[in-house]
Design goal:
about 110 residues, alpha+beta, three-stranded antiparallel β-sheet, 3 strands
Length: about 110
């Protein structure tokens, strides 16, 4: 993913997190694949079928490889963690994502 695209996706996810509160989009364990889906690296690797189950995919012509469970950005489980210091980000970026002093203010 190019830096411009990566920056745009990160901005979309940060804004989603700020607007919706604790969810995968703002979780330290979550690594995005795009602006909607990512993998939870808190979980152990699982089979391909288990990996996509939480996305609602029941059968596919393409067999997914084993790896971490994929979740949508709005998902939230009991393992949610956000230890990032949001105040280290530049003020203009914080304004762009709608940050109001707490990552889930909105």
């Amino acid at each position: 993913m190019s830096d411009d695209r990566e920056t745009a996706v990160s901005r979309i996810l940060d804004r989603f997190y700020v607007e919706h509160g604790p969810c995968c989009a703002g979780c330290d364990w979550w690594a995005h694949a795009n602006s909607l889906v990512g993998e939870c690296r808190r979980s152990r690797p699982v089979s391909g079928a288990e990996r996509v189950d939480m996305l609602g995919i029941r059968s596919s012509s393409l067999r997914p490889s084993a790896g971490h469970i994929l979740t949508r950005r709005e998902h939230r489980c009991g393992e949610f963690r956000d230890e990032f210091d949001w105040t280290t980000l530049p003020a203009p970026y914080l304004r762009q994502i709608g940050w109001k002093g707490a990552p889930h203010a909105g």
